[in-house]
Design brief:
single chain; about 325 residues; alpha/beta; 7-stranded parallel sheet; 6-stranded mixed sheet; 12 helices; about 35% helix; elongated; glyoxylate reductase (NADPH) activity; protein homodimerization activity; Glyoxylate reductase/hydroxypyruvate reductase; D-isomer_DH_NAD-bd; D-isomer_2_OHA_DH_cat_dom
Length: about 325
């Protein structure tokens, strides 16, 4: 009897152990992995994906028409170890009938925790304060030295009240936030009710918020959404935080707003590009805190993401319902 041919799976990076173990145990798959913690070069991805039935990728891997052409007709499933899918050429993927798995929900809590951490770090000027301890700037207790902004009785505006936006608001509420505003494609009365959040136009959110937290998806409509006009509407005492995608923000406009004192401070977990060049103007500013895209970076979350990505891939290859499929 002729043995069934194994399905070829290519993984674009070293992934956390739970996901890797699930794929290693799949007796119907032949698994190949780019054995590095660094991104696979696009030419190498083109070469390794040839003939693959399944592709497990990361948000830093651009899966465009060229990659899909290189893979060929065998490719049935793309599973991304991310909740964002802006790195995937979805129109082309849909045209070819390829199924897509992604990892929503499982990173919500970790990302919301990081957003709150980043907001507090930025508004209370913690990196500046730590540097003053190291460089001898701390001489004595002074009434107005290193003062920042607090959450008590503040207005927080959230751009995108999805899972992560809601989780951020829920964590901020006990800090004594007086009012939540949100904006998006449409009102979400059921989700907003618990927070008593008010749906407003984006211009009103910018103008009235003491803290602005961006948690929306990157789409054609949100690309460059936070630009010069947006920052000019914000209060001079306002703090801006972005944990969504770098391209939602016009970084040149943000630099000008921070350098000129148009807004008080900004905290970013995402940038364009990633990594941000070490000579980027934003890195010269004391009132800008930048993290290396670590929103979901807890051991538990990353392991859970990798297992979900692996299970999505295997289910898709076997023609079964995926635990988390992006409906195209």
């Amino acid at each position: 009897m002729r043995l069934a041919r194994l399905m070829k799976v290519f993984i674009t990076r070293r992934i956390p152990p739970e996901g890797r173990a699930a794929l290693a145990q799949a007796t119907d798959c032949e698994v190949e992995q780019w054995d590095s913690d660094e991104p696979i070069p696009s030419k190498e991805l083109e070469r390794h994906v040839v003939g693959a039935h399944g592709l497990l990728c990361l948000l830093s891997d651009r899966v465009d028409k060229g990659i899909l052409d290189a893979a060929g007709a065998n490719l049935k499933v793309i599973s991304t170890l991310s909740v964002g899918v802006d790195h995937l050429a979805l129109d082309e993927i849909k045209k070819r009938g390829i199924r897509v798995g992604y990892t929503p929900d499982v990173l919500t809590d970790a990302t919301a925790e990081l957003a709150v951490s980043l907001l507090l770090t930025t508004c209370r000027r913690l990196p500046e304060a730590m540097e003053e301890v190291k460089n001898g700037g701390w001489t004595s207790w002074k009434p107005l030295w290193m003062c920042g902004y607090g959450l008590t009785q503040s207005t927080v505006g959230i751009v995108g009240l999805g899972r992560i936006g809601q989780a951020i608001a829920q964590r901020l509420k006990p800090f004594g936030v007086q009012r939540f505003l949100y904006t998006g494609r449409q009102p979400k009365p059921q989700e907003a009710a618990e927070l008593q959040a008010e749906f407003v136009p984006i211009a009103q959110l910018a103008a009235e918020s003491d803290f602005v937290v961006v948690a929306c998806s990157l789409t054609a409509a949100t690309k460059g959404l936070c630009n010069r006009d947006f920052f000019q509407k914000m209060k001079k005492t306002a703090v801006f935080v972005n944990i969504s995608r770098g391209d939602v923000v016009n970084q040149d406009d943000l630099y000008q707003a921070l350098a000129s004192g148009q807004i008080a401070a900004a905290g970013l977990d995402v940038t364009t590009p990633e990594p941000l060049p070490t000579n980027h103007p934003l890195l010269t500013l004391k009132n800008c805190v930048i993290l290396p895209h670590i929103g979901s970076a807890t051991y538990r979350t990353r392991n859970t993401m990798s297992l979900l990505a692996a299970n999505n891939l295997l289910a898709g290859l076997r023609g079964e319902p995926m635990p988390s499929e992006l409906k195209l």
